[in-house]
């Protein structure tokens, strides 16, 4: 049966892998709409290749370029946030949410409220507004399929038992580019070094989150919301080979784990399945060729972002929203060369402690979460040194 898919973040790393999965299953998967951020030509290209009906660019300034690039194709287009929301809400069977950062929350939430089944890559949606997002999903009966490789593995492993029999759900981390680096070296690392991920090729924001291990912290919060597991039942294990992605330890001592070669097309295909799995012509995991798998505990001393995220998860309320917003601003500043590596965790810590003193209530709607997000961003921005103007450099 043909199913229609909308891809939010179609020009990004997850978006491109999704396009590969769709093109391998043209008989089964059709594309309704594609959404991109700023690159009109890249969006026009993916819209054409996938035969989408509608393409929406977030940046209004690229609207005319998009329209021209699609002229004669019969593909409709629009630009600006209204067009993005229109794309998200169009009739479709599945909406794959792969916009990076909290910018993905509003369109993903719009698709969810329209009752669409969500294949979720955009973890920031759940970190920023997890309780409200999941409550809305339950209310409209929208299903959420995790695309994040660890959560997709956990989702498959959890199918082996009942949630109440889960002792621990463990997600793995490769450890990022600085797994074995001494603290002094990490402190000096620039964005280029921090972006050199040993296993995955990803977008710029998640690359830095992987280097700081904030990504794993965000993923613990994501797992908490997706699976309704309390913080004490969630754990992280460093596993540099990135073969085992998630493990569920049961009350009888047995463990069910999800394994796959590190290729996002595997969890994407899994999240797009309906009744039966999609067949993927990808290399198969050859454990004998790999020979050994290794595991170690994460070092929260060199990677303080992980303990900050764990603390935010335990604290609950607005803390994950605040942590996520501060992290996004700090990562932006680090990517721009305005701050150093450990300034990221320092800014996140300061924003969390500054705002924890205030009585900010638990966000019960997505709109409330976004208001707290804005306040935390403003607080974080005040901690970033102003760029030195070129004219003052003498
Ligand atoms: P990316 O930077 O490569 O792509 C982001 C996409 O979002 C692009 O298409 C971009 O144009 C679009 N975009 C950016 N801002 C937008 C806005 N304001 N409105 C509309 N579109 C906008 O990022 P990515 O690596 O593909 O990651 C996407 C999401 O998936 C993130 O939340 C990330 O944490 C998650 N994720 C990624 C991976 C991976 O392997 N890349 C794995 C697991 C989870
Ligand atoms: Mg992941």
TrEMBL record:
<keyword id="KW-0460">Magnesium</keyword>
<feature type="binding site">
    <location>
        <position position="38"/>
    </location>
    <ligand>
        <name>NADPH</name>
    </ligand>
</feature>
<comment type="function">
    <text>Catalyzes the NADPH-dependent rearrangement and reduction of 1-deoxy-D-xylulose-5-phosphate (DXP) to 2-C-methyl-D-erythritol 4-phosphate (MEP).</text>
</comment>
<feature type="binding site">
    <location>
        <position position="203"/>
    </location>
    <ligand>
        <name>NADPH</name>
    </ligand>
</feature>
<feature type="binding site">
    <location>
        <position position="150"/>
    </location>
    <ligand>
        <name>Mn(2+)</name>
    </ligand>
</feature>
<feature type="binding site">
    <location>
        <position position="215"/>
    </location>
    <ligand>
        <name>1-deoxy-D-xylulose 5-phosphate</name>
    </ligand>
</feature>
<keyword id="KW-0479">Metal-binding</keyword>
<feature type="binding site">
    <location>
        <position position="219"/>
    </location>
    <ligand>
        <name>Mn(2+)</name>
    </ligand>
</feature>
<feature type="binding site">
    <location>
        <position position="216"/>
    </location>
    <ligand>
        <name>1-deoxy-D-xylulose 5-phosphate</name>
    </ligand>
</feature>
<feature type="binding site">
    <location>
        <position position="197"/>
    </location>
    <ligand>
        <name>1-deoxy-D-xylulose 5-phosphate</name>
    </ligand>
</feature>
<dbReference type="InterPro" id="IPR013512">
    <property type="entry name" value="DXP_reductoisomerase_N"/>
</dbReference>
<feature type="binding site">
    <location>
        <position position="11"/>
    </location>
    <ligand>
        <name>NADPH</name>
    </ligand>
</feature>
<comment type="similarity">
    <text>Belongs to the DXR family.</text>
</comment>
<dbReference type="InterPro" id="IPR026877">
    <property type="entry name" value="DXPR_C"/>
</dbReference>
<feature type="binding site">
    <location>
        <position position="219"/>
    </location>
    <ligand>
        <name>1-deoxy-D-xylulose 5-phosphate</name>
    </ligand>
</feature>
<feature type="binding site">
    <location>
        <position position="122"/>
    </location>
    <ligand>
        <name>NADPH</name>
    </ligand>
</feature>
<feature type="binding site">
    <location>
        <position position="14"/>
    </location>
    <ligand>
        <name>NADPH</name>
    </ligand>
</feature>
<feature type="domain" description="1-deoxy-D-xylulose 5-phosphate reductoisomerase C-terminal">
    <location>
        <begin position="144"/>
        <end position="227"/>
    </location>
</feature>
<keyword id="KW-0414">Isoprene biosynthesis</keyword>
<feature type="binding site">
    <location>
        <position position="37"/>
    </location>
    <ligand>
        <name>NADPH</name>
    </ligand>
</feature>
<feature type="domain" description="DXP reductoisomerase C-terminal">
    <location>
        <begin position="259"/>
        <end position="378"/>
    </location>
</feature>
<keyword id="KW-0560">Oxidoreductase</keyword>
<dbReference type="InterPro" id="IPR013644">
    <property type="entry name" value="DXP_reductoisomerase_C"/>
</dbReference>
<feature type="binding site">
    <location>
        <position position="13"/>
    </location>
    <ligand>
        <name>NADPH</name>
    </ligand>
</feature>
<keyword id="KW-0521">NADP</keyword>
<feature type="binding site">
    <location>
        <position position="148"/>
    </location>
    <ligand>
        <name>Mn(2+)</name>
    </ligand>
</feature>
<keyword id="KW-0464">Manganese</keyword>
<dbReference type="Pfam" id="PF08436">
    <property type="entry name" value="DXP_redisom_C"/>
</dbReference>
<dbReference type="InterPro" id="IPR036169">
    <property type="entry name" value="DXPR_C_sf"/>
</dbReference>
<dbReference type="InterPro" id="IPR036291">
    <property type="entry name" value="NAD(P)-bd_dom_sf"/>
</dbReference>
<feature type="binding site">
    <location>
        <position position="123"/>
    </location>
    <ligand>
        <name>1-deoxy-D-xylulose 5-phosphate</name>
    </ligand>
</feature>
<feature type="binding site">
    <location>
        <position position="150"/>
    </location>
    <ligand>
        <name>1-deoxy-D-xylulose 5-phosphate</name>
    </ligand>
</feature>
<dbReference type="Pfam" id="PF13288">
    <property type="entry name" value="DXPR_C"/>
</dbReference>
<dbReference type="InterPro" id="IPR003821">
    <property type="entry name" value="DXP_reductoisomerase"/>
</dbReference>
<protein>
    <recommendedName>
        <fullName>1-deoxy-D-xylulose 5-phosphate reductoisomerase</fullName>
        <ecNumber>1.1.1.267</ecNumber>
    </recommendedName>
</protein>
<feature type="binding site">
    <location>
        <position position="210"/>
    </location>
    <ligand>
        <name>1-deoxy-D-xylulose 5-phosphate</name>
    </ligand>
</feature>
<comment type="pathway">
    <text>Isoprenoid biosynthesis; isopentenyl diphosphate biosynthesis via DXP pathway; isopentenyl diphosphate from 1-deoxy-D-xylulose 5-phosphate: step 1/6.</text>
</comment>
<dbReference type="GO" id="GO:0030604">
    <property type="term" value="F:1-deoxy-D-xylulose-5-phosphate reductoisomerase activity"/>
</dbReference>
<feature type="domain" description="1-deoxy-D-xylulose 5-phosphate reductoisomerase N-terminal">
    <location>
        <begin position="5"/>
        <end position="130"/>
    </location>
</feature>
<dbReference type="Pfam" id="PF02670">
    <property type="entry name" value="DXP_reductoisom"/>
</dbReference>
<feature type="binding site">
    <location>
        <position position="149"/>
    </location>
    <ligand>
        <name>1-deoxy-D-xylulose 5-phosphate</name>
    </ligand>
</feature>
<feature type="binding site">
    <location>
        <position position="124"/>
    </location>
    <ligand>
        <name>NADPH</name>
    </ligand>
</feature>
């Amino acid at each position: 049966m043909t199913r229609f898919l909308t891809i939010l973040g179609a020009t990004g790393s997850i978006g491109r892998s999704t396009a590969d999965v769709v093109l391998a299953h043209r008989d089964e998967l059709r594309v309704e709409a594609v959404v991109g951020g700023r690159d009109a030509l890249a969006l026009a290209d993916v819209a054409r290749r996938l035969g989408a009906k509608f393409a929406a660019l977030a940046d209004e300034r690229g609207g005319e370029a998009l329209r021209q690039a699609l002229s004669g194709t019969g593909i409709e287009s629009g630009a600006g946030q209204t067009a993005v929301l229109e794309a998200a809400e169009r009739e479709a069977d599945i909406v794959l949410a792969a916009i990076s950062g909290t910018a993905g929350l509003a369109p993903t939430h719009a698709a969810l409220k329209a009752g669409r089944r969500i294949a979720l890559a955009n973890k920031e949606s759940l970190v920023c507004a997890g309780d409200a997002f999941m409550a809305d999903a339950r209310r409209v009966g929208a299903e959420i399929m995790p695309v994040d490789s660890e959560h997709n593995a956990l989702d498959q492993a959890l199918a082996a038992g009942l949630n109440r029999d889960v002792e621990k759900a463990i997600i793995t981390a490769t450890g990022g580019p600085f797994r074995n680096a001494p603290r002094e070296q990490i402190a000096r690392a620039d964005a280029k070094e921090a972006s050199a991920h040993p296993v995955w090729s990803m977008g710029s924001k998640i690359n830095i989150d992987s280097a700081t291990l904030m990504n794993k912290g965000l993923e613990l919060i994501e797992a908490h919301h997706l699976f309704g597991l309390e913080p004490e039942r969630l754990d992280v294990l460093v596993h540099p080979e990135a073969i085992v992605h998630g493990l569920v330890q049961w009350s009888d001592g047995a463990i069910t784990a999800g394994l796959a070669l590190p290729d996002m097309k595997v969890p994407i295909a899994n999240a797009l399945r309906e009744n039966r799995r999609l067949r993927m012509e990808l290399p198969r995991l050859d454990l004998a060729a790999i020979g050994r798998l290794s595991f170690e505990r994460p070092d929260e001393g060199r990677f303080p972002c992980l303990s900050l995220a764990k603390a935010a998860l335990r604290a609950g309320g607005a803390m994950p929203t605040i942590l996520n917003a501060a992290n996004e601003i700090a990562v932006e500043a680090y990517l721009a060369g305005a701050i150093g590596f450990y300034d990221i965790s320092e800014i996140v810590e300061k924003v969390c402690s500054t705002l924890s003193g205030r009585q900010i209530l638990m966000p019960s709607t997505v709109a409330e979460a976004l208001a707290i997000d804005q306040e935390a961003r403003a607080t974080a921005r005040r901690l970033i040194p102003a760029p030195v103007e070129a004219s003052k450099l003498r």
